[in-house]
Amino acid sequence: xxxxxxxxxxxxxxxxxxxxxxxxxxxxxxxxxxxxxxxxxxxxxxxxxxxxxxxxxxxxxxxxxxxxxxxxxxxxxxxxxxxxxxxxxxxxxxxxxxxxxxxxxxxxxxxxxxxxxxxxxxxxxxxxxxxxxxxxxxxxxxxxxxxxxxxxxxxxxxxxxxxxxxxxxxxxxxxxxxxxxxxxxxxxxxxxxxxxxxxxxxxxxxxxxxx
Length: 211
Hints:
By secondary structure, the protein is mostly helical. It has helices at 2-8, 14-30, 34-49, 55-70, 74-91, 94-110, 114-130, 134-150, 154-171, 174-190, 194-210.
């Protein structure tokens, strides 16, 4: 269906073609086909430049940033996420802004700039809360826990892991719950909370049994 739309988009407007290409970028990115994704990105970028306030342009820039982050070209990743953020800020697309900030937090963490990473993760959380995006909120809380743990703030990290777990639990999200429980167990051991660590170990076992 996507490829048929792509073939037909030659005869459509630039905005329609941009939407089709953006969908193809997202599809191949999900398959981890980075080079093929980049091919569609290169075709779509000129169309994005001529539609500077399009949500499709913002999505394209976001996904381009994700590709370059995976290729460890961090400066280019930052450049494209800032383009996405500029559009989403003008459109007041708070959910999309949260996704942009989440990527920035990830990039700055990889660049070993922890304060910048924390600041952007907090901004992601703030924007996800504005639109009550609970899956996003859970991911942001978990990211904040991981970032604080990396900086040796184990007690703060533990609190974020607990909060993230409770959100994932209400969502009945087994993978999110599993990740949180693993971090909670590790954090409990680091804090000398052996009884809590045992509770999390058992909770992990129960989760595995259910799945």
